[in-house]
C-alpha cells in the first residue's frame, strides 16, 4: 500500500510561487493579502487538494469556531438529519464541525463521546442524545468550561437546551385529526429511550383522553 504524504503549507507555497507566510495568511483569512495573491494560493490549494490541519491551527490560536456534536447513531434518520443541518449552517457561518457518535447506551457512553470532542479542542458542544435530568446535568459537568447545548432533554432540565413543545405538537395533531372525523388515532413517537419520544407520547395520551378517546 502506498503511503501518500499529506500536502503541507510549504507544498502549497512552492506550487503557488509565494512564501510560506503568505499561504499561512490566506489559510487564516488575514486581511492584508491582495485579492490576486489570495486567488493564486486558493487555486494551488484546490489543485493540490490541501486539507488544513485544524488541530495544529487551533494549537496556534488561529482556529475558527470548531463545534463538537455528540450524537446518537447516524444510522438513524433523525440524528443524521440533525447533524446534516448543523453542518450546513456551520458551513454558512465559516465554522467547522466534528462529530462523535455515542457508541453505547447510557450516560457514561455519552460522557466518553464528549471527552473525545474536548480532546479535539472544540469551541462549543451540541449534544443530541436522550438524557434524563440528572444524567444531563452530569454530562454538562463533564463539558468543563466549554459551552454545551442539549437537544434531547426535558424542558424542565436546568441546562442550556433547544427543544420545541412536544405537548403542543401532539395537541395540534390530535385536534386536527379529530376535526377531520378520525376515530382511531395512532402515534409513531420514536424509541422510549428518547426523552423527546416520551414527551410526545405523554402529550398524545393527554389529548386523546381530553377528546374522549381511549388509548
Automatic annotation (TrEMBL):
Taxonomic classification: Bacteria, Pseudomonadati, Pseudomonadota, Gammaproteobacteria, Enterobacterales
GO molecular function term, any single one: transcription cis-regulatory region binding
Domain HTH lacI-type residue range list: 7-61
The protein's name in its UniProt record: Lactose operon repressor
Keywords recorded for this protein, A-Z: DNA-binding, Transcription, Transcription regulation
Species this chain originates from: Escherichia coli
SUPFAM superfamilies, sorted: lambda repressor-like DNA-binding domains, Periplasmic binding protein-like I
Gene3D superfamilies the record matches: 3.40.50.2300, lambda repressor-like DNA-binding domains
Gene field: lacI_2
Amino acid at each position: 500500500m502506498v503511503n501518500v504524504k499529506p500536502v503541507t503549507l510549504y507544498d502549497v507555497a512552492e506550487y503557488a510561487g509565494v512564501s510560506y507566510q503568505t499561504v499561512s495568511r490566506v489559510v487564516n483569512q488575514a486581511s492584508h493579502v491582495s485579492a490576486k495573491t489570495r486567488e493564486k494560493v486558493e487555486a494551488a490549494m484546490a489543485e493540490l487538494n490541501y486539507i488544513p490541519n485544524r488541530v495544529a491551527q487551533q494549537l496556534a490560536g488561529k482556529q475558527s469556531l470548531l463545534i463538537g456534536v455528540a450524537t446518537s447513531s447516524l444510522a438513524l434518520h433523525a440524528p443524521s438529519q440533525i447533524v446534516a443541518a448543523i453542518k450546513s449552517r456551520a458551513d454558512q457561518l465559516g465554522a467547522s464541525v466534528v462529530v462523535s457518535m455515542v457508541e453505547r447506551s447510557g450516560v457514561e457512553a455519552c460522557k466518553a463521546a464528549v471527552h473525545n470532542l474536548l480532546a479535539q479542542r472544540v469551541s462549543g458542544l451540541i449534544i443530541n442524545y436522550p438524557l434524563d435530568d440528572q444524567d444531563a446535568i452530569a454530562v454538562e459537568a463533564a463539558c468543563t468550561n466549554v459551552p454545551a447545548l442539549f437537544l434531547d432533554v426535558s424542558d424542565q432540565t436546568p441546562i442550556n437546551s433547544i427543544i420545541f413543545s412536544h405537548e403542543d405538537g401532539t395537541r395540534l395533531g390530535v385536534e386536527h385529526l379529530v376535526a377531520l372525523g378520525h376515530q382511531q388515532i395512532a402515534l409513531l413517537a420514536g424509541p422510549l429511550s428518547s426523552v423527546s419520544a416520551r414527551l410526545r407520547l405523554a402529550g398524545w395520551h393527554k389529548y386523546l383522553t381530553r377528546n374522549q378517546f381511549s388509548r
